[in-house]
TrEMBL record:
InterPro entries: AAA+_ATPase, ABC1_TM_dom, ABC1_TM_sf, ABC_transporter-like_ATP-bd, ABC_transporter-like_CS, P-loop_NTPase, Type_1_exporter. The lineage of its organism: Bacteria, Pseudomonadati, Pseudomonadota, Alphaproteobacteria, Hyphomicrobiales. Keywords: ATP-binding, Membrane, Nucleotide-binding, Transmembrane, Transmembrane helix. The chain crosses the membrane at residues 34-67, 95-122, 171-189, 195-214, 277-303. This is ABC transporter ATP-binding protein/permease.
Length: 580
């Protein structure tokens, strides 16, 4: 079974087991000590149930002891004499009180330990899964990222990652409940077997009733996941296209779309809670029916009164465990879809190996050569570039020109190894780019594009972009990019805070920040993909001339539609048009 298939389950009969085993199988891959931790949690949970059972029977014995004013209890744990018939288990009142107090304290301590371990494990799992998901998003093949919509990725990362910890908690509770039910069952058998049999019959009926709800839960889980994703997607798109929405006067339409989706989410959440309430009430009604039955027919059952009372109290205390057992199974069904989405994303192939595999790069000493390179994006009928061959010589200033859609950005992406050629090869100083460590290769390059991904932070932080360079370098880069002239006029200069979308900057100013970001590392090879196309011609020429002057010895490749820009360069590569 593949990772992605692990949670694709068969028909209903085996389905719940598959849900459970599928989750265990998946979790084991992410939490190496899963069995140990889970075992410990289940053990403390079951021991806590055992302590409760001992406490209940001792309490009832004590009540009878006090009622009869007797000094000793000859049957403090009601089931023991039946199991070890020759064993004298009579105990004085003080000892019974001591054991009872001990059982209560033990129950409390085990409950506390269980809660603390549970909370530690849940946060540990969440942290690990969140980290792995974030890592996967960074590691996914660039083309694969485009296949996921942002809303889906945000929902998985921010919300659905928590369901993994929730699923583990449900599994633990499942184990604890099964263990406790078995222990209570054995206790009841020892105390009063007819009542235990009634309890067993109750369990079977209860289980069958709850099964009726499993399918609804599963469907609801899937529908809820979809609705949440739609809502996140709409919120995300609205934020991204806020200006367009306002400019086209679409607020009312967006509001009504949002209200509908939000209503759907609320409706499904309500339905889920209603289902939970119905199953819980049904479960309680069943147990009260059984208890009533036992009371009405107790005279026909061959059980003495204290034993019958102990067994009945145990059966009553068993009810939350049976109830919770079913709730957890239904909950696991509800979590099936979000879990599947988390694990499917984690199962996607990454590209991390490209960062470390191959020879370390020393940059471009002689040339970058494209040899008959063809590249086709997945699921597209025609290649974006076909059998392209050219040289970019070290130290040369090259213009890459061609009509829109000719494949210029695709070539840039191939050089950056955001994609690999479908056929042909890219060779750097005689070594295929595929045999060069990607991270060390990227260390040698700098790139600026036409769309600048500015982030929330100061101007300086946006130029540094998580890297560490001295202030003089930031200033040098900003001046070279023609950005210093407007940064100096901002109220706080380089410390001016740019909001999420950096709305206070014009498109040309944003591009110049992006340019400074590329320049600040003083790399030997610079790629500019329409990086200055939003500037007026005069500013663009001024900025590029200064850059070329500064980069006299270095390699510069510029993609531009403007003839004047291409004319600044010493070498020109023409991409004729679409190969189709
Ligand atoms: N992610 C993608 N998936 C599928 N097809 C793509 C993708 N990106 C680009 N293409 C297609 O590849 C071809 C080349 O696109 P590319 O962006 O490289 O052209 P370009 O020369 O840079 O165009 P422009 O000058 O308009 O920026 C186009 O036909 C485009 O539709």
């Amino acid at each position: 079974m593949s990772k992605a298939d692990a949670l694709t389950f068969g028909r209903d009969g085996k389905r719940r087991h598959r849900v459970v085993f599928g989750i265990v199988h998946q979790l084991r891959e992410f939490i190496p000590s899963l069995y140990l931790v889970t075992g410990l949690m289940v053990a403390t949970g079951i021991l806590s149930g055992l302590a409760e059972m001992v406490g209940i029977t001792l309490l009832i014995s004590l009540i009878f002891l006090i009622a009869q004013d007797a000094p000793t209890v000859d049957q403090p744990l009601a089931w023991l004499p039946r199991i070890i018939s020759d064993f004298d288990v009579s105990l004085p009142k003080g000892v019974v009180i001591g054991i009872l107090a001990g059982a209560i304290v033990l129950r409390l301590l085990l409950g506390l330990a269980n809660g603390l371990i549970g909370s530690f494990v849940a946060h540990h799992i969440s942290e690990r899964i969140r980290g792995k998901l974030y890592d996967k998003i960074l590691d996914l093949a660039f083309q694969d990222i485009g296949r996921h919509d942002r809303g889906e990725l945000i929902t998985i990362l921010s919300t659905e990652s928590y369901t993994v910890a929730g699923a583990h908690a449900s599994l633990v509770r499942l184990g604890v409940n099964i263990g406790t039910i078995v222990i209570f069952g054995i206790g009841m058998l020892g105390i009063a077997w007819p009542i235990a049999l009634v309890g067993l019959a109750f369990g079977v009926v209860h289980n069958a009733t709850m099964r009726l709800f499993a399918t609804s839960y599963r469907r609801l889980g899937k529908a809820l996941s979809g609705s949440l994703e739609d809502l996140t997607q709409l919120s995300w798109t609205t934020l991204l296209t806020l200006k367009a929405v306002r400019s086209f006067g679409l607020e009312d339409k967006q509001r009504s779309l949002f209200a509908n989706l939000s209503h759907e989410v609320a409706r499904k959440l309500r339905r889920s809670e209603q289902l939970g309430a119905i199953t819980s009430i049904l479960s309680e009604a069943l147990i009260f029916g059984v208890l009533l039955g036992i009371m009405l027919f107790s005279s026909f059952l061959a059980v003495d009164f204290p034993a019958a009372l102990s067994a009945t109290v145990l059966l009553y205390r068993l009810q939350p465990h049976i109830n919770e057992l079913d709730q957890q199974i239904l909950h696991l069904h509800e979590m099936e879809t979000p879990l599947q989405r988390v694990f499917t994303l984690l199962a996607q192939p990454g590209e991390r190996h490209l960062n470390t595999r191959g020879f370390p790069s020393r940059g471009v000493e002689r040339a970058i050569e494209f040899k008959n390179v063809t590249f086709r994006y997945p699921d597209t009928p025609r290649p974006a570039i076909e059998s392209i061959s050219f040289f970019i010589k070290s130290g040369e200033k090259t213009a890459l020109v061609g009509p829109s859609g000719a494949g210029k950005t695709t070539i840039m992406n191939l050089i950056l190894r955001l994609a690999e050629p479908t056929s042909g090869s890219i060779v750097v100083d005689g070594t295929s780019l595929q045999n060069i460590q990607r991270s060390s290769w990227l260390q040698q390059l700098a790139i600026a594009g036409q769309d600048v991904e500015l982030m929330e932070g100061t101007v300086r932080e946006n130029i540094l972009f998580y890297r560490d360079f001295p202030d003089e370098d930031v200033r040098w880069a900003a001046e070279l990019a023609g950005a210093a002239e407007f940064i100096d006029e901002l109220s706080y200069g380089y410390e001016e805070w740019l909001g999420d979308e950096a709305v206070k900057l014009s498109v040309g100013q944003r591009q110049r920040i992006g340019l400074a970001r590329a320049l600040v590392g003083r790399k030997n090879t610079l790629f500019l993909d329409e990086a200055t196309n939003a500037l007026d011609e005069e500013t663009e020429m001024r900025v590029l001339t200064r850059i070329l002057d500064e980069y006299k010895e270095k390699t510069v490749v510029v993609i531009s539609h403007r003839q004047k820009v291409a004319a600044l360069m010493t070498n020109r590569i023409n991409l004729g048009g679409h190969p189709g």
